[in-house]
């Protein structure tokens, strides 16, 4: 007999859920393309579109794994569902970095410099991404499973640490009235616009933190552990958390505050 999905997942994956998840994320990507294009928002906002598409592909790979499992498919699925949310952290870093750059405030501390906010946290995100990629690939091989697991754990722990540091920087910028954003449609003043943008950043970062803690706990619990084998936990703390982030990005769309129509909104 050939290998079955249970041999890899350690449980029988539910059918219907990954199909629905894939469709939802592709719809989310289409909505974001429409919103970004209509607002003539900065091109870096397409980070959200790419992430939604990657999530959709991850769930298509999950469907394929349920139907015809193979090692290559399983590794691809792990990577597509584990790594793309890192780009959402990058998006939030970019938003706060752009606020600092646009405001033309002389920073009191080096960590408030626009380039530092954008590139320091970007590099931390790439480093965490690479560690999780390497670890996730290694976990698919029996002789490297334990090493790969702990590489992933370190990568996720690093991400959590930098996310916490980013929250501190975002709070400082959010509370300082010198930092402003351009008003979007139906936003009465710059202060109200800034509150809306910063609320979106804090809410989505909080959800990303929850998702990262779940992934970290899953890795520590180990392959075949109680958390790894609980499919409901995956859909609650990974799928639902990421989907809620996208809903917030769509409902509280910040593209109007970073429009290409204004010359001052060029990329760092």
UniProtKB/TrEMBL annotation:
Top-level lineage group: Eukaryota
Record membrane topology: Multi-pass membrane protein
One Pfam family linked to the record: RTA1
Entry-linked InterPro entries: RTA1
Locations listed in the record: Membrane
GO terms for cellular component: membrane
The keyword Kinase is assigned to this record: no
Transmembrane feature ranges: 20-37, 44-61, 73-95, 116-135, 147-175, 196-214, 234-254
Main location per the UniProt record: membrane
Signal recorded as keyword: no
Alphabetically ordered keywords of this record: Membrane, Transmembrane, Transmembrane helix
Protein name (record): RTA1 like protein
Native species: Coemansia pectinata
Taxon lineage: Eukaryota, Fungi, Fungi incertae sedis, Zoopagomycota, Kickxellomycotina
């Amino acid at each position: 007999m050939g290998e079955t999905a249970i041999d890899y997942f350690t449980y029988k994956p539910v059918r219907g859920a990954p199909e629905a998840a894939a469709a939802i994320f592709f719809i989310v990507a289409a909505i974001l393309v429409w919103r970004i294009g209509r607002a003539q928002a900065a091109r870096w906002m397409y980070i959200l579109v790419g992430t939604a598409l990657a999530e959709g592909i991850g769930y298509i790979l999950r469907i394929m794994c349920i139907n015809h499992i193979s090692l290559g498919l399983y590794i691809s699925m792990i990577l597509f569902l584990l790594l793309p949310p890192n780009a959402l952290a990058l998006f939030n870093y970019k938003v706060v970095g752009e606020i600092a750059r646009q405001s033309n405030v002389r920073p009191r501390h080096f960590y408030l410099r626009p380039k530092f906010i954008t590139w320091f946290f970007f590099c931390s995100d790439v480093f965490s991404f690479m560690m999780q990629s390497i670890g996730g690939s290694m976990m698919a091989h029996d002789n490297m499973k334990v090493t790969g697991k702990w590489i992933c754990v370190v990568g996720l722990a690093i991400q959590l640490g930098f996310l916490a540091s980013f929250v501190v920087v975002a709070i400082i910028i959010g509370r300082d009235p010198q930092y402003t954003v351009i008003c979007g449609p139906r936003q009465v003043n710059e202060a109200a616009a800034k509150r809306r943008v910063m609320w979106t950043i804090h809410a989505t970062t909080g959800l990303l933190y929850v998702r990262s803690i779940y992934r970290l706990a899953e890795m520590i619990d180990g392959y075949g552990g109680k958390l790894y084998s609980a499919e409901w936990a995956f859909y609650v703390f990974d799928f639902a958390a990421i989907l809620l982030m996208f809903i917030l990005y769509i409902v509280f769309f910040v593209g109007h505050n970073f429009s290409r129509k204004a010359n001052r909104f060029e990329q760092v």
